[in-house]
Amino acid sequence: MNKVFLIGRLTRDPELRYTGSNLPVATFSLAVNRPFSGQNGEREADFINIVVWRKQAENCKNYLTQGSQVAIEGRIQVRNYDDQNGQKRYVTEVVADNVEFLGSKNSSNNSSSMSAPASNNNNAGPSPYDFGDAPEPKGTDVDSNPFADFGSSIEISDDELPF
Fold it and tell me: How many Å apart are CA 113 and CA 103, to the nearest integer?
């Protein structure tokens, strides 16, 4: 099973690009505090590269900035490419299936959150340096949310259950 949950702050603004087939993909780095202090008594952090696809990528670009706090749900992906000198380079990153906006760097309470599901089951993403011939990820269509703007609430009672 390959499942990752992270909460951290963006170290830079999201960078939005488009593949050759006009598919949006955003990248950013997330600072995640370690659960212990280092030898000098200070908390250390890990800096993790995040990749987000489709509508969620555009939402990240539009609503997140450096310092924004987010919760990420996704999977670890390792890919490789040949650099300009012909040497093989390896990249480890988290492909986000869901990004939940927890707050900005200036917000004192985290009561407001925005969330939209990203595409699931993405294929290996393109190199961050070349999006021209990247394979298009497969997954759910994020624009067809059956619960969006439904317009009325429903009541559910245990009395109605058949068991």
Answer: 7
Domains and CATH numbers, the chain: 4-143 (2.40.50.140)
User: What one-character DSSP code corresponds to residue 112?
Assistant: -
pLDDT, residue 106, reads 65
> What pLDDT score does 47 carry?
96
Whole-prediction pTM: 0.63
25 neighbors 44 (Cβ within 8 angstroms): no
Residue 41 has a pLDDT of 85
DSSP collapsed to 3 states, 25-46: EEEEEEEEEEEEECCCCCEEEE
Task: Single out the residue of 37, 28, 36, 25 nearest to residue 8, CA to CA.
Answer: 28
